[in-house]
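WARN retry 2 of 3 for item q-0093 after timeout on previous attempt; input resubmitted unchanged.
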Amino acid sequence: MRIRLYLLGLVVALALPLAGLLVLRINDGERQAVANAESLLASQLAVMATHAETDLRSIRRQLEYLSTLPPETLLDPAQCSPRLAELLQFHPEYTNVVSFAVDFAAICSALPVPPGSGRIVTDAAWHERMARDPGFKIGEPVMGPIAGKVVLVVAQPIRDAEGRLIGSVGITIAVTNFDPKLPEQHLPDGVRYGFRNDSGTLIWRNVDLEGKAGLPADSEASRRIFEVRDGKFRATNSDGIERHFVVKSLPEFSLIAFAGLPVDSILAEPRRKAITDALVGVAIITLLLLLAYLVARRIEAPVVALEKAARSIRKGDTATRAAVGGPAEIASLATEFNALHEARLASEQQLKGQAAELDKIGVALRERVKEMRCLYGTFSISEDLALPLPELVKGVAELLPPAWLHAEITVAEVTLDDSSFATDDLSHSAAMMRSEVVVDGSMRGHVTVAYREARPPESEGPFLAEERKLLDEIALRLGSVMKRRIEANRLHDSEERF
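OK item q-0093 returned
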């Protein structure tokens, strides 16, 4: 009976640490997966917020300028200012520029008003808010009769010399203007992101927008977005999928940016590993119980030798094996014990291999986070069209090295027109990759990254395939910024002529 207790104690002694290790690995894996997902979503929200705030501030400046024009050029159909059409021409991202009387009937429009249309924008909510509290207002999405797509109006009051409200001027934009154009290849499957206003109405989201823009909160997730405003939570979308959300408010414009990943997607890899580890643990415990049962049925004196071998192994001597000898039953038991010991060593080795694989996945995810930070930094610094070109070039060049795998030996150079900046000398580089900056078919510069020392081969020399995509995205972004700078200069020159 004592030998039975000893063997049972051995089974428990081996099973409990294994179960504890399994639980710790599962919890740690899930916590790390959630933390990485929150970091990715936070970086994404920062890009979205910067994009939206920059565009809306630009629109507000345009409206403030238009509201200072002589009132008769905005509120008299016979004297409509040509500035409306000029502004629309220089900003193709706008769908129309319109002035409204104090009763919000359309007066002047950069585009022809459809026959019989008394009101160009049918969103009554912003009319009421403007009448109640005149000031800069952002309307809710409606189907625009001229644009033929879902738009919203951004409006500024027009006042007379005594400061009384006599009308308003507005710029209509497609809700797709809120799309930050995030590179889809860097985003996980099932990600949902977009904007809602302070009343919970959906302004824009990246998928399934048709028929949804302008609708109030219609799911647990949309209601929680409105309630939380700044923070994180889990909730179920209207598609029935539970997601982990991070939200950020934009109080300046009464908007809330949100981004969410499916919980199943976040926890898929930790759960898969947990199932694998659990199966291995169950198999080991099952083998241990079987061994205890066999030994309990065949109690013999030579079991003492086996007990000594077990004690030795518990003390850490993994080279010890039970001697095979004595009666056939004991010899068989010794053989099974040795096989169990080998299985345990193999399981531990497998766990080490799985841990190494998890570390590898963590490294890959950290690289993606670094790339997203680089993209966010590039988007953020390049949104300021007033920033001198040399400072833009220097800022982007300094963002590049930390985003590469071997940051400590990375050198970057950015050239736009006559402005160029390199973080170090590229003349003695061991490997180099480059992407051209093209504006309307004309090369205006390049973005170059190089390693000062040789590194093991990857997808493109020593560089990762994701690093090539990142470099191309940055070059494409700089090309877009250069084009916008050119258009802004043209608009400025035009305004000076007038």
